[in-house]
Design brief:
Blueprint (H helix, E strand, L loop, with lengths): L25 E6 L12 E6 L5 H8 L18 E6 L19 E5 L10 H17 L3 E9 L6 H10 L6 E6 L6 H16 L11 E5 L8 H11 L26
Parallel strand pairs: 2-4, 2-5, 5-6, 6-7
Antiparallel strand pairs: 1-3, 3-4
Bound molecules: guanosine-5'-diphosphate.
Length: 260
């Protein structure tokens, strides 16, 4: 059935053909308060989304790692920000070997999932402060990637995120996840509606904000290349060559990726 997406996705590919710099991602730190955000100056690409939208799955598949980002099962464990570094460690390097901080080129920032029905008032407030302040004020934030279930686009809290972020003028990329759950028409419509919604954000001169959207399925590996390329571009990493000695020691678990 995923072949039907080829018309929707011109860049459709069943898998990433080459290693990506995102594969170098490594856990860097966890932060519970904005005052504890790292002092690193490299560009940050933040990932936000409703709980269960597929954010951890998307991060893990883009970074070609099984357990980099953890699915947030309990609301109490969701109120923190996880940082993953890109650069400073080789893809095949042992996890216990130190990351060279001065060689870090960018950070992937896993923001707390939102939209848990059972979250209490004070936890909601904490979420609001943490997420709202981070996306509005963090200078190092280069772009926001929102993971949105393609079947339930732009819920109230998603819109809240966009509203917080839009005034920064920075780029936003929406990954419409779980596209495998939609048929071709539904997927086309979901993408069109998302683009229309994002296109409604214009600056004082009527110029649209740098907001983009794409379809994505971790399950069927739809839109991986497109997401990968966009994230690298947003992080300013797209024109860098990978060190050829930086090949993984072990073949990927996925089994269907071309060797580097
Ligand atoms: P998170 O809370 O946003 O981090 O969401 P998870 O990554 O934990 O995913 C939530 C659920 O959606 C899990 O059961 C995943 O297996 C499932 N899921 C994630 N991505 C996809 C996808 O591309 N297609 C389908 N059908 N299910 C997915």
């Amino acid at each position: 059935m995923y072949n039907s997406f080829s018309a929707v996705l011109p860049t459709f590919n069943a898998s990433l053909h080459t290693m990506s710099q995102l594969w170098q991602a490594r856990f860097f730190t966890t932060v519970n308060h904005l005052r504890d955000l790292p002092s690193t100056q490299v560009p940050e690409i933040a990932f936000a989304g409703r709980s269960n939208a597929g954010k951890s799955t998307a991060i893990n598949i883009l970074c070609n790692q099984k357990k980099l980002a953890f699915a947030s099962k309990t609301p109490g464990r969701t109120q923190h920000i996880n940082y993953f570094s890109i650069g400073g460690a080789h893809v095949g390097q042992h996890r216990k070997d130190e990351t060279k901080v001065e060689e870090i080129r960018a950070m992937l920032v896993d923001l707390p999932g939102y939209g848990y029905a059972e979250v209490s008032g004070s936890a909601k407030l904490h979420w609001q402060e943490l997420l709202g302040d981070y996306v509005r004020r963090r200078e190092q934030l280069a772009a926001l990637v929102m993971i949105i279930d393609a079947r339930r686009p732009f819920t109230e809290l998603d819109i809240q995120m966009v509203e917080w972020f839009a005034p920064t003028g920075k780029p936003l990329h929406c990954i419409l996840s779980k596209a495998d759950k939609l048929n071709r028409n539904e997927a086309t419509n979901a993408l069109r509606q998302a683009r229309t919604f994002l296109g409604s954000y214009v600056d004082a001169d009527g110029k649209p904000f740098p907001f983009t959207a794409q379809l994505f399925s971790a399950l069927k590996r739809i839109g991986l290349d497109e997401a990968n390329d966009r994230i690298l571009e947003l992080a300013g990493l797209n024109d860098e060559e990978l060190d050829p000695t930086d090949a993984p020691d072990v073949p990927s678990d996925e089994g269907d990726q071309a060797p580097a």
